[in-house]
Amino acid sequence: MRITKAETFVLHVPITPPITDAINAATHWGLAGIRIYTDEGYVGYGYTGTCAEGDDMIVDTIEKYYVPLLIGKDPFMVRALWDEMRYGKMHWIGRAGITHMALAAVDIALWDIMAKASNKPLWQYLGGAKSQGIKAYNTNGGWLNWSKERLLQDVAAIVEQGFTGVKIKVGKPDPREDYDRCKAVRQEIGDDVIFMIDVNQQWSLNTAMTWGKKLEEFDLFWLEEPLNPDDILGHKKLADELNVPIALGEHVYHKYAFRDYIHYGAVEYCQVDVTRVGGITEWLQVAGLAAAYDVQICPHVGDMGQIHQHLVAATQNATMLEYIPWIRHIFVEPATVRNGYYALPEMPGASTEIIPEQFQKYRVR
Ligand SMILES: [Mg+2]
């Protein structure tokens, strides 16, 4: 099989109502991506996810530096193509951020083609380990700009829908407000629901030591991204002091940083995101690395779960998967949760194919 053509796209899908966490505000979810065509008729879709900022730089990178390496090549040579892209002309200025998100989009499209050509959903193509579905936890009721009333209404509704895990954002200017919101949420959802909080890098080490300890009383399943994601040493110190597990990984761009986080015991739940770590090729390596340390994988859904549902289903050391339903309506086979579990996809491919009308509706480039 040969790649004959590739074209990039940017979609902006509205988020209603707009949301904030401690460092981000978003009105749209951005998909910066690529469609790769082959001489056997298979078309692969891959994308990365953004807060609808910087997408143009991602697709510029794909068009100028990655597409020329793809034309005429066999998509089944994905690991060789990954190396060519990763260690090619962009290596001098890349290795994380924009270039790795661009690489992720291309890599995902290649795996989509391979699974389609093998007539299997990606999770089966990868040797699926969980045919019974994947436990989902819901993040979409806990935004930082929600009033306390709305927060409690939303987490109650999520539990009512059958979810057994909820996550809320913290990182208010006054941590006493975080404490008050966490206390109210734990009372609302009861003791049997898994409860996680996400700081989105907002705290200093001192704040994290102090307030992480205070918040332990709410039986947190994990404390997410308490510090700057480049501060492995700070997370190690925190992990040594707290009795709540540390989760992070959505801003970690390659396996070397994950190796150090895991090796030094600075993370317990590894939230490696396929749309940021350079795609499925690198994601699988991080998952294997974590397995050797008995560290759990629980991805951040920069893809909103479409691709990760396949990867988690095929990974023994993956526990559950985040759920945020902002973009599911644009996909031919949307990620679907029933009674708190992802129902695994049945169509061949990586569940990245977009409905043509939705593609046109939200396309901005
Ligand atoms: Mg997070």
From TrEMBL:
Annotated Mandelate racemase/muconate lactonizing enzyme C-terminal domain ranges read 148-245
**Cofactor(s) of this protein:** Mg(2+)
Q: Name one Pfam family in it.
A: MR_MLE_C
Key words of the record: Magnesium, Metal-binding
User: What InterPro entries does the record tag this protein with?
Assistant: Enolase-like_C_sf, Enolase-like_N, Enolase_C-like, Mandel_Rmase/mucon_lact_enz_CS, Mandelate_racemase_C, Mandelate_racemase_N_dom, RHMD-like
Q: Does the keyword Signal apply?
A: no
Name assigned to this protein: Mandelate racemase/muconate lactonizing enzyme family protein
